[in-house]
Amino acid sequence: MNPVAVIGTGQTRHARARDDASQPELVREAAARALDDAGIRPRDIDAVVIANMELFEGRAWPELWVGEAAFAAGKPCLKVATGGTSGTSGCIAGFHQVASGLFDIVLVVGFEKHSEGHTQTGMTLTDPYWDRAVASGAVGNFALSVSQYMAERGVTELQAAQVAVKARRNATRNPHAHLQMPAITVEEVLASRPLAHPLRLLDMCPQSDGACAIVVASGDKARKLNPRPAWVKATATRHEQPYIGDIDRRLITMRTLRDAAREAYASAGIREPLKELDVAEIYEPVSYAELAWYEALGFCAEGEAGRLIEDGVTEMDGELPVNPSGGVLSTNPVGASGVIRVAEAALQIHGRGGDRQVEGARTALATGYGVYAWADVIVLADRP
Amino acid sequence: MSEPILVPIEMDQSWRYAATAAMARFCEGLKECRIEALRCEGCGRRYLPPRPVCGNCHLLLRDWVPVRDEGRLAAWTVVHVPILDARSGRTREAPYGMGLIRLDGADTTLNHYVAEHDPSRLAIGLRVRAVWRERLEGAIDDILHFEVLR
Fold it and tell me: How far apart are CA A108 and CA A90, in angstroms?
């Protein structure tokens, strides 16, 4: 396969409701910034990938209706719609298109405008025979799995609250982040409104309006256009069986993320992820998930995730800063969220992270998480 | 900043879905308070809902096994912010209990309501039993909820 790198990123201001911009305008805002960052013009783009969950907005064919704003008119364009993994899988699709030699420059754009639609309605459209009568939604489903994770691994509500606080404190250094809560405390998290036991409002991600784009380039073009390209070292994807009841002890086993991480680390030559990774941008829709992902991603042994957050290992000044951007817990336009993980990981390699830059970051991890358990793992580095 | 324009759309739609033979047999069984799972001859896993093929072994499933309407809580929560019922657009009155229930005779779990919403009275491993509605229609909500056996 040909070498592939991320050479530019762009994202919108993310907010609860971006009434100042239509869906295409939101996409154009992110896409134009990514082109500027990469130093290319629209005509340099060979192909476009769009990531969006159209059922959430209730508007069919996003690739038709926002494609032009992503400079896709007259070009190859495809759409990825796999829930939370839409963005990371869209990026992986773009990487594959360039790695294969099919195209030299691909633009990947993810977006969601939750404020315009009915996300919950979209999420209930599952198997009509089995789940619809008894659907518990994203919050309820996570709460069920969290009850098992807490019972088996002994994590506490306080440790989860520490994750929630870390995310929102990091978000204050990210001008794009939706939630800005500089004074947040664990007490405030623990006192926030219960959603589904033991999950509280501040344990959960928000719903955001926003878009994010990356420019993917082949080796020669990447070297020419960016002094520090973020090279794609590895990608791995795993899907699962269809029902939540199929996935026994979901957060505990998390075989999709575990297997994808193992595959990605092997192809990137990573043996000790906590030591060898410099920064991670992981898809944590709920505080407890971040703790479970620490274990699945091999940052610590099983049962050690609570200690990792207590000891500050994943704070900005820790051994492995996790989600300097503030993560999904601070910003979640679903179709864009995976692209944001990849863009933020790439920014760290580019050395363009501003106030959220991890000094000297050379190897970065980005992950996606979708529906009940789909997983994407991507490793970026400063050398091909 | 432009004002959002509200598009007044109300939809009243019907859908019709073709069930697999496996799901059709399962739904017919529910009309008689009968629950059946399909067992994989490769890995031995007993699947609810029944489906044509085992996702792990890729073998066709045809070995029907009986499942009791009792089992154990494999996971639980108490929901305070209900999700919409996708069929009616209404929400259930909160708070209410939900669980992943491993019915005796099945290896997968069933996501369903639990008639208990006091977290101090819920725990993994509790025995639960289905409470069936009076007029059975061959759908998963023929089971109204599960009651905790104490």
Answer: 7
